[in-house]
Amino acid sequence: MAEQDPILEVRGLTKHFKSGNAMRVNIVKALEDVSFKLYPGKVVALVGESGSGKSTTARLIARLYDPTAGDILYDGKNVALAHSRKAMLDYRRHVQMIFQDPFGSLNPVHRVEYILKRPLLLHKKAKRGNIQEEVQLLLKRVSLTPAEEFAEKYPHQLSGGQRQRVAIARALAVEPKVILADEPVSMLDVSIRMGVLNLMAQLRDENNIAFLYVTHDLASARYFADETMVMYAGRVVESGPSEELIRSPQHPYTQLLLSAVPDPSRGLRTQEVEITGEVPSLGAVGQGCPFAPRCKHVMARCHEAMPPVTDLGGGRMTRCYLFEGGATGVNSAESAAAAAQVRA
Amino acid sequence: MTRQPAPESNLVLPPLAEGEPLLSVRNLSVVYHTKRGEVKAVQDVSFDLMQGEVLGLAGESGCGKTTVANAVLRLLRYPAEIAGGQVLFHGLDITTLSEDQLRDFRWKHMSIVFQSAMNALNPVLTVGNQIADAILAHTDMTKEQARARSVELLEIVGIDPARITSYPHQLSGGMRQRVVIAVAMALNPQLIVLDEPTTALDVVVQKQIMDEIRRLKESYNFSILFISHDLSLMVEFSDRVGIMYAGQLIEMARSQDIFRGPRHPYTQRLMDSFPTVSGPRSQLRGIPGSPPDLVTPPGGCRFHPRCDVALDGLCQQVVPVFTEYGPNHWAACHLLDAKDEVPNG
Q1: Does the N-terminal or the C-terminal CB of chain B have fewer CB atoms within 10 Å?
Q2: Are residues B186 and B324 in the same domain?
Q3: Under a CB-based contact definition with an 8 Å cutoff, are residues A279 and A51 in contact?
Q4: Between chain A and chain B, how many beta carbons pairs sit less than 8 Å apart?
């Protein structure tokens, strides 16, 4: 993976929202210092609870907001603050987004054909003459057949899964290199979800598309994503290859999150993990590790500063003082012992 | 706000006989009257819930699970209507109760926790008032007694009683759901219906709430009818699970049996439809097609258009009978009659 260049890279991405009024401005630190790379044909999952910053990350990359700090490099070019119509059009020809709610993301007054025609014309991907063919081709790629029939329908005549397929077809219209999928299956029924996830996996493989998969569901990240990043209160606390991360979570928050996922195959009622506290309000996050108030391994310095990124080897990273120094660092014996204790 | 005092109790529940179910739903059918015709939302559903049991009803949107929950509490309003069947609680048929009797029955004997805590609470009333309201509506307690009980209930569900003067928007989603549970427990009912109690919550908060409910169930000895679309959660939390599809109950068994050895093809495909965080990482398929339109449900087995093992000339025409195929393991599928096991795969 290292030999290939990333198609998209974010560095130190930060977003602060201001709330309140002129007298009392309240800064909400939605995202702090997030960095990662997307590679063609690979899926990176951002996993976290509400308010963890996972959707904000996707929206920043889609350039729906301006970041407070940090870079967004597409094909080596920084687009973090690009605004010109040409630059944006150019960027969006390559980077497309799929939203969570297929009931809200498709204009209800237009037929499917119109919804799919628009990106084709806007981005000059098709001539007016053969546009119907192009639309039907798109519908076939997302398995909405007979395509002629689906092209004539309005969004309300489609089921949730079919609507999400139309949203995917719309993203595909511009032949994107990157798709940002923000909880694309969480509003769909269980029996429908796999069909949509498998479709995205197929597009990833056939068209070499890089996916950013935003989800609250660790199990689906394990299924779909090559790499998973776990977010908490605007920070990435752990990342690594999905399978290993889920098999042996290192950060105390990842362990908490994983233990809360219902999983009958783990055996019934054996998983009693003590859960204390709640996710902090983002206006109130201080200097230290945001998880410190809930962490059972908390140390004095956890409240003072955010732990640095520790490379655990094998592509795994975490931000926790328990692992400071990493496997080869000066504190390796001590932190390995602490890590073992965490796992126990 | 002035309230009518609750009527003098004229509802006497016969005591439960040995082995008699607390709740027995017999051939329940519910229709919704729409412009397009009758939606047969629940068709001929029967099950028993024993005292102290957690019984789960699982299925996808539109399968009728919430309609069953509402029918059990007689909460259905036009255009919904109970078209047939009985709901027996302590042997008493709830479907025949008058409005006055219902007011006396609901909350005292059976209560419900609704889907979204955000919407279940009134935003302009303090949580204390909302708990007290439920108590005052169904008992002849004084306001002072109701308030004291509200404080006690908040403590029971793990909320600082000082929060009694808080408004719902001042509480987190998890705390609001705890308040809704406190309201449901206000009169110590024997049965609490939980309708997707954690759907809008994050997984960590969900875990906290479900652990809390389990703890409360042990302490206060109520039974639970648990409605959810989340099969993993359902199997983990329930003693027995019923699977619904297109308005019908198609399988019912002990949780572990549903999980390890589902018999109905729909249940089998459903179990193959969601990834887990442990076990092998296999290719999952989902189920092609969508659930049917219940104005004109398919003849025979309602699952046959999506079933890859349907038998020609049988499943399209003949409605399969809900039959016991193993100890406490019921299913409705022609293939189970044809041979012992439905091929899974």
Answers
A1: N
A2: no
A3: yes
A4: 111
CA distance A247 to A242: 8
* Same domain? B70 vs B216: yes
- Residue A293, preceding peptide bond in cis (omega within 30° of 0): no
Mutate to test the interface with A, among B277, B282, B294, B306 (most CBs of A within 10 A): B277
Clarify whether residues B213 and B262 are in a common domain: no
Residues 6+ apart with CB under 8 A from A150: A112, A139, A144, A158, A162, A166
- B266 and B224 inside one domain: no
- Give domain limits for chain A: 243-344
What value of ipTM does the predicted structure carry?
0.84
- Alpha-carbon gap: B244 to the closest alpha carbon of chain A (Å): 13
B233 → chain A, closest CA residue: A262
Which pTM value belongs to this model? 0.88
- The string over A10-42, giving b where at least 16 C-beta atoms fall within 10 Å of a residue's C-beta and e elsewhere, is bbebbbeeeeeeeeeeeebbbbbbbbbbbbbeb
| pLDDT one-digit tens code per residue, A29-68 | 999 999 999 999 999 999 999 889 999 999 999 999 999 9
d(CA A100, CA A55): 10
Task: Say if residue B266 is in the same domain as residue B222.
Answer: no
Provide the sign of the torsion angle of the four alpha carbons B65, B68, B70, B76, taken in this order. Answer: positive
Domain holding B44, by residue range, is 23-230+238-242
Residue linked to tokens 């049917």: B292
Q: Which residue of B has its CA nearest to A242?
A: B277
Cβ distance of B204 and A257 shorter than 8 Å: yes
